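User: quick one
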Amino acid sequence: MLTRYDLFILPFLYGFVTLGYQILYVRRLVSIFGSSEIGYTLIITIWLFFTGLGAYMAEKTGIRRGSRYISVAIYGLVAVVFYGAIPRLYDIWNLQPGEVTGLLTMAATSVLALVILCLFSGALFVGIVRTVSAHSRITSLSFVYVVESLGSLAGGVALTFVCLTLIPDRYTALVLFLLIVAFMFVKMDKKLLLMPPRVTVGVMCVFAGVAFALGQFGHQYENQEVVAQTNTAYQHLTLTEYESQYTLYSDGLSFFSYPQVQEAEEIHLTMWQKEEIENIAMIGICPPDKIAEILKYENVRIDIYENDRTLLEFLVKHLPEPAGQYYANPQIKYDWGDPYIDITKNGQDYDFVIINISNPTDAVSNRYFTVDFFEHLSTRLPEDCVLSFSLPGRTHLLGRDLQEFLGTIYNALRTGFNNIKIIPGDDYIFLASNDSSMIDLDVNALLAAKEKNQIQTTSVDSVYLSYRLNEFNLLKAQPIYNNELSAANTVSRPVVYYYNSILWASRFSGLEEAVLKFWKENKYLIYILLFLPLISLLNLVKRSVHRPAYFSICFLAGFSGITMEMSLLILYQSHLGNVYSQIGLLIGLFMVGMALGGALPLRSKGTTIFMKKWFYLGAAIGVVVLFGLAMITRLEGHQFLNYLLILGLSFLSGGFSGYLFNYAAVSYKHKYGAEAPGRFYLADLLGASLAGVFISVLFIPLIGFGSILALFFVLYLVYVILHRFVIIGV
Amino acid sequence: MACGAGCACLPFNPVENGLALFQNAYALETTDTLSHVKAMYYKKLEGTAIECELCPRHCLVTDLERGYCGVRENQGGEYYTLVHSRACAMNIDPIEKKPLFHFHPGTAAFSIATAGCNVNCKFCQNWDISQVRPEQVTNVELPPDEIVRICQARSVPTVAYTYSEPIVFYEYMHDTCVEGRKFGIKNVMITGGYIEKEPLKKIIPLMDAIKVDLKSYSQQYYEDVVNGELQPVLDALKIIHDDGMWLELVYLVVPTMNDSTKELTDLCRWVKTNLSDHVPIHFTRFHPTYLMTNLPPTPVKTLEKAYDIARQSGLKFPYIGNVPGHSAEHTYCPGCGELLIERLGFRINKINLKDGMCGKCGTHIPGVWS
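Assistant: Done. Structure below.
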């Protein structure tokens, strides 16, 4: 007989290990695919979906006497295929070292890498519910759900702040594996295990093997020597060396290579705009060669705004000299705060501000290319200050996708600056100022500035500039200036994500691009999606079908939970900067809220769960969440208030989600006298996985955070109607 | 700037000419319609199917389908090019950018391209035009006579068929060459060399120089990274050289992928044995792009290794490309080692050639100097 302590420790460890694995695998896969909103979303969606499916399969097949061997066989088969496939994935897709992965490849790789782990994880959930149920009279599904949330909280905190920053990922995976084996054999009722113990050990060993085999994804650095790797609070860094060429990868994406042969032309094209140069601000740390270019200008002072101090330490330690000397030059001053906030607070008399962030691919980098930021800069900086940045372009062609992508940023830029010039090319260089006499792209004037500053350059010379700055080339940017159709990129509606996704997808098969474009061209379908829950609900109410109503509430729990979690993470990044240092706190609060919210219905006895007080309670939480979310979008600039609000909302939305799940579970048990953990878990995670796809890829970029408000409002209405008119039945 | 051989090329001012060209070019109209010009090389099969005979891919194309290149379409059993006079990219470039180092140094080339390509290199610098169909780009209606007119008006001596793969706009290139020849305009083709023998032999007499991108000396690399074949390219190189056409080779050195000592040695030996030790070979620096963005740029050390291998193999004119300021950008006399053409990026600083011969020892320097 298991003690009460044992009944608590089982789901707690389950939550700890599964979230631990989730963080571990997501980080690992993202470092392979490269950090992108689509990449994150895809992995998490696949994770959630297969975990739910695993629970459902276990409920349907695994627990029944006689069928366990079938499920073992299925898992075993998948495990073999999966295990065999991992090291060969690059061969299967014919990917070469250094080749980027497309959406379909990402999806297929994620499924292969995650399917067995997730199926097993979902099945384990059902096994634990059954174990608890056999040893107590409480509503085991709800209990497990609550305690698992607490375990997840502990797992999230431990992984984020301890394991992954102190020990290599694969050893973390081993620790998790040992934990799960230990708790299964020490605490779990072996008769109720999904599989016989020996098979279980075998499958778990496969997991451990997979965790180690994931190291094989290092194929992406094949033939290069990995000089150093580290996890910072903000990113995963890898430095490789190949015949004295050093390349830094951040979260699996090439950041820069050193030494660079070509000079940083945007530095000189910016610096030659003024005769006297004193102060320069640089947002984000840059390659040493770029610093060397700036240091060619005598007595110039450089303020570098960067929040990842470990990045600099990593570069100084591992890059060969003279890189370290450049970074340590006394003319450079570092500001380790949030660049977005600090540069607008400091209000220095900068001659130039150079945004050294290559591409707005996520919420953190997007902040620096928004109406909000440009307006801040414009009001705080001197009128004759020149802002410059470069974005990836195309040498020959300004296609419609690129035109729209650059157009969103140009339209944002012109809200803050009235004098903007764009230089087309492989990189589109943007120069902006509020002084109409600034920014001269006349070759002779630039060469005169070069002469005056006595700058020696190899490649940025008269011939080069004549080709780069001739009118024929410059006027290729004309469609960007006239692009009235592109919405200005803002924090609340980061439309640039969408265009970035299109540009990214255009490199792969037409399918990815076509799917994304379809939604842009049929935006009304997104609004229909918003109201789809209401349409299906009407059907439920009309037919007075009760049983699906409970699952629908669970679906809502998952959908609203992930919607809120993702929205809050993105909102945090957009308003307050890099979320990595706070992600443990945010998710922790969400989990605590989930546990507490989930615990509320457990307090009901008998038919009290159907009383109206529960209806009013859920309704009240929903209203507060809705109101809080609306407030965030209105509190631009109030950093501390936003911080509190986001943390509070994380807690409340977790509470709402947990409450919904357990309300459905408890009331289902009261009504039907049995539990359905597999179906409930599937409904919950199905909702969560769908939210993952739609929210980050479509809703937020295409119709902004306002759409989240509308969506949440609809979900809330669905809950109210289901509860009031179907479950209570009044 | 007059070239050292004293040719009649007019000085080129990119700023001035660029502006004027722009005004001209924009007088041209962008067009949404595709061309409907019959293709030159295809074979009719049973029914309405055809077999394209332009490149070694030999696409079998049924009615209303297109070949691999995406710019040739079977319409009722006849094969048509959809990009004749439909340029999607045009610019005035220095000839050194192609790169052609032994062809009228210091002059400019009016460079044009259409959409499409018959291979799919994962490192393509121009994938935005080469890996798309003509409907996906903005096309300018630029017929051959208009190209010639622009060249004449702007004193640009050469037309370069470049950026994407000119083989796929073969008919357009052919007609422009013919038109250009009438007015003394030179033609250069910048190609991957993946072409059938017959169309190649027909276009060679219309050209003044050909630069071929030899992607690798490994069939496996051609399969995995290029989606093509090595042997047809080698065959094409021999034909071009044997026909007496001025030929330069470019070998894009992709780090970790086609830069082994063995491969480079084999390549250089093949060039010397099957072509000539006088064929210039440019080892150019790869810059991460398209699908290969997670590789480092080619280390200069690797390029220098390739350069040294070429010298040791007996090749007389190896170069290092995309590394401005490197000493291997220059042309040296194979006889006395004298610096003959000093380059800095696209700029020509000094030319020490007299009638195509070394200004110091008089060794003949192969190339098209006048």
